[in-house]
Amino acid sequence: MDAKVLLDTTEMLLLLIWRHLEYYSQPRYMNAMPVKVSVSNAMRLLATAEPEAFRAEMGAKLAPALERLASLDLDYESFGQDWQGNQGYIEIMCRRLRDSAGLHDETVQGRAGG
Q1: Helix, strand, coil abundance in the chain, percent, nearest 5
Q2: How sure is the predictor about 49, in pLDDT bands with cuts at 50, 70 and 90?
Q3: Does the pLDDT value for residue 61 go beyond 80?
Q4: Is the entire prediction scored with pTM above 0.90?
Q5: CB count, 10 Å around CB of 89?
Q6: d(CA 45, CA 43)
Q7: How many CA atoms, within 13 angstroms, populate the side-chain half-sphere of residue 96?
Q8: DSSP string, 55-77
Q9: Which domain of life is it from (predicted)?
């Protein structure tokens, strides 16, 4: 498979994961009637349906993948003329995912306490 296709697919998946994380971690959506069934269905694999616990669990699951994405070495030879745009987008989405999962909060607390 072409590296550019994999990169574009990764971008789409990052956006999808971020949107779902944002949606399902909002307390107001947890009890909405039409959504309640789908939220319950989506959350059935998680230990808890509490938004903060959901966010923390997702952070723990996402952290290794986000670290690997941060170490990607994109260049013109491998990805063509759009490589800088792809790299920027992936960095932005990783930052958004870290923010949504509370991973930046832990980093800040770790620096303040250490």
Answers
A1: 80, 0, 20
A2: low
A3: yes
A4: no
A5: 17
A6: 5
A7: 16
A8: HHHHHHHHHHHHHHHHT----HH
A9: Eukaryota
